[in-house]
Amino acid sequence: ASGATTAGTAGGGMGGAGAGGAGGAAMVDAGTFNASNAMSSVGQSAAGIMIAAQNSGIAALIQQSVNVQSNLAVGR
């Protein structure tokens, strides 16, 4: 048999996906530490058990507590 042979045409394959972008910059700030301890006019209107607690400086890192002992007369 003598027939004409015709070859098909093939298209090129798709390109691969692109690479991801670079990561963002990390910003870190340690803050500032203030060791001042100014306290003025803190005890004029206190009633009962007064504790002058600071919330700044080195006193902010110290646990403060109040202990109370009371003697009760029960059943008299």
Helical run tally: 0
Largest sheet: none
Helix content: under 10%
Gyration radius from CA atoms, angstroms? 40 Å
| Uncertain segments | none
Which term fits the overall shape? Answer: rod-shaped
Structural class: little secondary structure
The strand count comes to 0
Query: pLDDT average, as an integer?
Result: 77
Region (Disordered): 1-22
Biased composition (Gly residues): 9-22
What labels would you give this structure?
little secondary structure; 0% strand; 76 residues
Care to describe what's here?
- The chain contains no helices and no strands.
- It is low in regular secondary structure.
Summarize the structure.
The protein has no helix or strand. It is largely without helices or strands.
